[in-house]
Specification:
It is built from four helices and no strands. By secondary structure, it is mainly alpha-helical.
């Protein structure tokens, strides 16, 4: 990529229209997202629930555990997801 840009600069004497410098990217805050408290909470909630619900697959994969055991496992997995 760097060689392509260098060749373009050498040939045309300027950057292409769709290319921005690092300083321009920093000014626009591209590629850098500052996590807010709401973003972190949402991520924890979604990942915890997804982790827990993923354990529902034990109902269909023939693990032999009953419904109560699986629901306990799902609840525990969601709780552990919140902790970590």
């Amino acid at each position: 990529m760097f060689r392509d840009v260098a060749l373009y600069l050498h040939t045309y004497g300027e950057l292409p229209d769709n290319f921005i410098t690092k300083n321009e990217a920093r000014e626009r805050s591209l590629g850098q997202v500052t996590p807010t408290q709401d973003n972190v909470r949402s991520a924890v909630l979604v990942s915890s629930v997804t982790f827990g619900l993923g354990h529902l697959l034990n109902l269909v994969n023939g693990s032999g555990a009953g419904l109560a055991e699986n629901l306990f496992q799902v609840t525990g997995a969601i709780a552990i997801g919140f902790c970590f």
